[in-house]
Amino acid sequence: MFDPVMTIKSGQFHHWEEEKDVICAVNGSDAFFLKSGECISGDRAAADVFFDAVHDYARAAELVRNSEDLKDLAPYLSLRILKQDPWEAVVGFILSSNNNLFRIRKTVLDLSKNYGNKLAEAEGLAAYGLPAPEIMAELSTEQLRALGAGYRDKYLIETARMVAAGKWDLHRPDDLAYNEAKKYLMQLPGVGPKVADCILLFGYGKKDAFPVDVWIKRAMARFGEFKSREVASNYAASRFGEDAGYIQQLLFLREREKRNL
Predict the structure, then answer these.
(1) 110 with 153: CB under 8 angstroms?
(2) Beta strands 16-19 and 125-128: pairing type?
(3) At a CB cut-off of 8 Å and minimum separation 6, what does 177 contact?
(4) Is the pLDDT of residue 95 over 70?
(5) Rg of the chain over CA atoms, in angstroms?
(6) What is the pLDDT of residues 117-127, one digit of tens each?
(7) Which of 107, 92, 97 has its CA nearest to residue 28?
(8) In the Cβ-directed half-sphere of 255, how many Cα atoms lie within 13 Å?
């Protein structure tokens, strides 16, 4: 059974806030309000895309249940991989470098509330979209740093300027195979291999991407020793194929739960 609350809070997505039993999630120009785990407001067709309703997760679930080194991931099989708006993913994961989930989410929310447009309101929560690249391109490093962007302020501004000027196409990775799309993303300031893999997985639906951060590096010890993060990522891509990104997220949840985070 799909668990939208677990999915939203799983660390793959940063543009959400919660008050009592209501969660407001913003994806591009769409706002979704969930109460007690049920979607009470928001376009249904857009919600199906965002929550990846059409993807068949049965193969990955069978793999988890039948593999000795994956069986402990079974409690998290109610998770899905969210299909985020590309700009949402680019901003969120540039902010993720050497950062923690609470600070990333706070910066995304503050950036949206200060410089984005109000999209909707329900149950006392207001939803604000991220400022468009054209808007963010005009912000100063001081303005972004005041919102908690830290040293990533210049990366966000330079990226926004590239997108706004048409020097980098947000839709181009959709048309590229994984390896080419990764090279294309790494043209952006502040986007290294791990951040590129996160953007590809969560923003472009490239489910063969396998981001390796400090949590996944620890989790990969169950499969053996890997001399580098790249080798670990290649192992996962080779073994799990198009389910690699999903397995990555299950490993991430398991590793953080082991450390009570």
Answers:
(1) no
(2) unpaired
(3) none
(4) yes
(5) 18
(6) 999 999 989 99
(7) 92
(8) 18
Smallest CA-to-CA distance from 5 within 44, 41, 51 is with 51
What band does 46 get if pLDDT is binned at 50, 70 and 90? very high
Tell me the HSE value of 260 on the side-chain side, using a 13 A CA sphere.
Answer: 0
CA 261 to CA 244: how far, in whole Å?
Answer: 23
Helix or strand run (H / E) with residue 148: none
Which residues are paired to 31 by β-bridges?
Answer: 26
Q: Which amino acid is at 165?
A: A
φ/ψ (deg, to 5) at 259: -105, 15
Exposed, middle or buried, 179 (CB in 10 Å: 0-12/13-18/19+)? Answer: exposed
Tokens of 56: 């068949």
Interatomic CA distance for residues 64 and 45, integer angstroms:
29
pLDDT tens, residue by residue, 224-247: 999 999 999 999 999 999 999 999
Tokens representing 128 are 């604000």
| Residues paired with residue 22 on neighbouring β-strands, in sequence order | 19, 35
DSSP-H helix ranges across the chain: 4-8, 44-50, 58-66, 86-94, 101-115, 133-136, 141-146, 153-164, 178-185, 193-203, 214-219, 229-240, 244-258
Name the residue type at position 104. Answer: I
CA distances from 230 to 28, 147, 210, 213, 226 (A): 31, 32, 10, 11, 9
